[in-house]
Amino acid sequence: MCVNTPGSFTCLLPQVNANPASNPRLVQFSCGQAVCNLGQDCITINGVPRCADPCQHYTILDDAWRSTDFKTNGTLHCDMGVNWQGWYRMYLGGVSVQMPERCIQPRMCGTDSPLWLKTPHPVNSEGVVQGTVCGSWVEGCCNFEFPINVKACPGNYYVYKFVKPPLCYLAYAADANTKVCATCREGTSCVSADKITWTCQTQDPVRLSGGSNRCEGRVELYHNGRWGTICDDDWNMNAATVVCRQLGCGKALAAPVNGHFGPGSGPIWMDNTQCQGTEAYLVQCKHNGFENHNCGHHEDAGVICEEPFTAVVPQLVCNRTLMRIGVPAVHRGPNALNMTSGHLADPTCVAQREENGTVWYEVQSQAAVCGNVLKINSTHAVYSNTLFLYLANSSVFSLPMGFPFSCVYPLDSRITMDIAVRPYLSMQEMGLVGVGPGARASMSLYRNANFTTLYPPGPVVLPVGAPLYVGVNVEEVEASRFAVIVDECSITDTPDPNNSERYLLIQNRCPSDPRDVLVIENGMSLQARFTALLFLYEGNYNDMFLHCRLSLCDRTTESCSTKCQTRASRSISSHKSLTIGPISSTAMSSAQCFRAVEMLMSDLCTSLLNCARLPLPPMQISSILGRTSGSSSQEPLRQTEMMLTFPLAFCILLLPVVAGVPPGFQVRLAGGRNPYEGRLEVFYNDAWGTVCDDEVNINLANVVCRELGYGQGLTWAHSAKFGEGRGPIWLDNVMCTGTESSLSDCRSNGWGVSDCTHSEDLGVMCSPNGLQQGHVPRYSEAAQPAVTPARPPPDISNSPDDSIHRRGHEIALNRNPHRASSASSPQLTGHQIQLRRNSGSRRQDSGAPRGHLLPDHLRNRVSYRRNQEVPPRPAPINGPEPSYPDLEHDNRMNTDFTNTIEQPAGKVSLEEVRLRPVLSSTRGSAMITEGVVEVKHAGRWRHVCNLGWDLSSSKVVCGMLGYPAAEPHKEHLYKKQWDSKLEDPAMRSLVSKKGYWVEKVQCSGTENSLAQCQAQLSIPRNEVPCIGGMHAVVRCVPGPQFSRLSASGQPQAPISSQVVRLKSGPRLGEGRVEVLREGKWGTVCDHLWDLTAASVVCRELGFGTAKEALRGALMGQGTGPIHMNSVQCTGQERSVTQCQYQQVPLRTCKHTQDVSVRCNVPKTGLGATVRLAGGREAAEGKVEVLMEVGGVQRWGAVCSENWGINEAMVVCRQLGFGFASRAYQETWYWSGNSDSAEIILSGTHCIGTEMSIQQCRRNGQVYCPRGGGSKAAGVTCVETAPDLVLDAQLVQETAYLEDRPLHLLTCAHEENCLASSAHRMQWPYGSRRLLRFSSRIMNLGRADFRPRATRESWVWHQCHRHYHSIEVFTHYDLLTMNGTKVAEGHKASFCLEDTYCPEGLSKRYACYNMGDQGISVGCWDTYRHDIDCQWVDVTDVRPGDYIFQVEVNPSLDMAESDFENNVMRCRCKYDGGRVYLYGCHVGDAYSAEVEDLFEHQRQISNNFL
After folding, report:
1. What is this structure's pTM?
2. Binning pLDDT at 50, 70 and 90, where does residue 1283 land?
3. CA–CA separation, 325 and 551 (whole Å)
4. 435 and 417 in contact (C-beta within 8 Å)?
5. Torsions phi, psi for 145 (to 5 deg)
6. To 5 degrees, how large is the angle CA 692–CA 695–CA 697?
7. Which DSSP letter does residue 829 get?
């Protein structure tokens, strides 16, 4: 445990070269960057914190009222109000004393509850230890408990690091009886056998003789100058523990007697030695007195201690992408470490290899991989993990040794970071710390807008005015965590990034001018991309350089989306330049220039309608890109920011300036219930993206709706009302005036510049009035006239009839007024898009600049924009053009089936499916299993054509509807009905519309839903849909639990030989997956778990396909073995056991990785036959049922006689509300419905697995003596519930017999914890034989387990002086082999608390001071064997074979997700003197066949948690 204290960081550490379990109390401190030596603390001396000895730097605490002789009068003192700082030495009347080590009565020492030291004071050699302080009160001596630090000092005194007690009135006590300790001379100790009378005594050493090592042998004591032995009378493990501790060995293993290590010689110093086990020296134990004995040396006592464990010092290597921790192979052996048991924090990470005498374990430097933990500050990124190794001779449930290690990756090389010491489990070793290199970055130049093709190394020629595609990449392992941000980019004419003369392209992470620069990706991943229109720097046409400054941002702690303001973020490097160049200027011909930019122009001219070439020889600026532009040279990034420098080379090329809608720009609405509402999405830069909802008003909605062809905007929706989109967020802070003809005309931050997430996606709702077909993209002519060359350049367009040509295509838009009937006509919605080559018939305007003149707007953009305005947008191109049948265009679905021609649908989203029964024989059932298939597409239900439909597609439909299989139907009946319907002209007209159909659906049968099948809305060039076909029909086969409900309403029993089951699910068809293997139920590990495997499980259990395949024990943790891992199914298997899977090695998977499923379940209609009335919310209220009474269906109430949690569970599951948390027998506070007041259901008795309350056993005639009204039944339902499971192994390991005197059983007898024969005994004489054991109960569910009774209702038991929150929490029974009870016990919950919680979980419930009681999710509550009533009274039981049974929550007073695992059973053999428990297991751990064998044979193994 590590604790932060003012000025220091405290951790518990083991003694050097000691066994980890030998002294777990030692504490070590850190001070700044240093770790203090053992025995020192970080103490502020003269204003400077430094490591110092507390024995020399303390404060005297001399308060007379703290004395154990001081009885509290009217004044009460409280140490909670004291500002405790540092260390204190206690005095009374100027004499040094110490804290008492015994219980002090309440109302002494000047306070209500005196604080005394529960743990023994340390010895001088131990240094600083952690002790436990207790506060006495009426409930007991240790009613309040908390830790402090203590140190023994030379001179027989102690210093204490006091802390504030948890409440008033508590105060630290000073033992007046220890004043004598101040008189002890050097070389003596102040000892006391009863902790009341203290004396000065020589510190007699001990040794062990006759053993195989120094930690075992005959105990010998040095006293009065002579070595002697100890007699074995009363010698036990407590005494052995003291000797082992005094010798610095490990824990005591045995206390041999009868001269086990041979007879000694010399005096026998001690006899009848009685130790508590907490003494620091053997001579502090009670004994008859030195040399006062009646023994011989054949009775010499001995001890066997664990050998001290040699400290393991691992090695650590930190690479950029890998952390390696190595353990020397010399520590491998039968009495050392088991190297093959090693794993990291994630127990599945077990990879290892041995190199040069060291066993290495590796893990990537990446958060969450193998349990890695990443912590980041402004200077470092620290990845931490722990290596766990088990001792070679350890048991299965022993704790591993933990070796924490950390790799520190500096973000700033000028700052270092020290890692504090932290222990783990029993090892508590110092964590290893290593340092790794920083991140690396590169900047590259790409040929195209897709950023897919890099320029090769060597000279690159770029045209002035052309886009430059720049990509930045950072090598950082944490790709999922970090994002690179381009903070600033500028152009200079020198390689110096600090040149004062520069032109900013990107500033504060945003384009300085959106007309020049487009940021495509920034702050989204480890790559950033932007484009910039290049121009020549004024006064210099030769050399130009691009400089960019980058930073890394942690996406888990801040929003990394770019915004036009500075933001603190993780930096990469400072003033570190990657320079490309130098750049030289040479001359080249015009033809060379154009050939060099051919690829660039092909991309550029798709967005420009006019591309002109200059006949003049342009300037060439060639760059020696060398190692960066093509090969992406990289440099380590070690400082606070990164500057990347790129040289730019141009050839002069005059291009027209483009204004208007960006090329290919489109808008659409997605995710709405109809075509004129939905999430606003825009198509830009070849990708669909969304729009952020910041600063939006109705003007934007009007512009968008008008652009889509609708009347006007009705309103807009924020916060992703229509669902979160995907892809980039293209626009943010969009401000429209309402007069714009396109959304792209509105003002915004710029393309891709946003600080939003998809949870802020904008939605728009338009008026359908004035509906037009499609939206009208507008394209503009060049804003500037093209330059007419003085002399035509060589022809490169292959056009024979003109010397002046335009590159690319012209695009013309025409209305499509009617459906195309020609096969050669394109099938289009909205507009036809027609392309044609420019034939040269249109001449360029004259008057354009000629010769070598370069327009000002390209020569110097800065100066030009000071004097010029943006040119007006020209009118769009219109006019008829020849059509191209291969081209189609559609940006939304049209629901007007009368004039819509749909395109072939390669990707059709079929959202839902249903069966519509059309035959009279299929209409009467509440559960529809046969009918015509209807699918939902774009919010509209359609029929499916049966051409190409087969049984595989039917199986998919049935799976979606909750049925495991499909079977052929009687097709001729449906064909006959179809033909009769087509005789109706209205029906013929309807089915002739393509909007009525989904024409083709093809499935393999393994899909989870139709959305995964291939589907087409219509067949191209088929004028009439579904020619020669009809609607598809499906007939499903229900699972055995649903099929053919009998007249009594009882479902058919499920298959008895099932090998898969679902546990702890809140609803039908949900739960944790468990499989039966070799007669034992076990769980499945979640590696590779997917919907396909989950669907196999669902179908096997009689349900449909899986809706969800859940991982991470989302339906609670299981117990027992984990049978399967890495399950991979094809979907064709009949059982999940037929799928491919891997065995699960020990400790590679945990139950926290158990898989669960949610299956599609058929709609039975049962939920409509029960309701809850009068509650504050839908999931609580008075239960009302719909039943047949006198031949009429009517609603009524339920009698609460015998109404319990099982009945409430059935009601909640029937309603789909999950688990029941309470079953009410009085509902006076819920009014209910007036027409349902009469009781119509009584005598209800449910097992808990029924699908409806009507299926439970009940009275044939209503009989309810309690009456209805306020006494009717009610429930409260919840989504999650606890699940208590008993640790069977601990019960088996801790069972023993004790003959306990009656005078020690008075309180237990009062609480009826003894057999009835105890009443007839002559109290207090005699004894009872008790079968004692420890029990540990874990909450494996998903909600805390709490007592039903409130704190005010807890029962006080005066004898034991504690409260009972649950009167009967567990039953303990001893049964004969035929089930007859021969002995019993019970345990009330006097203290229901979190005794132990795994790492990562905090204790929430504690019993002291009448605290809240309960068991948190994942935590244990332990009842030790030495607690009263933790037994079964077997005094009257004859020897023989029995079954020992423990049941938790036996009366089902508190709700749980699974009651079947509340019972634990063991085989018990009692021979009259000893008892053996074996075969202990949880009640539902085995199959019924194996469980039957358990009662008759001895072939069942333990079922451990």
Report:
1. 0.46
2. very high
3. 31
4. no
5. -150, 130
6. 100
7. S
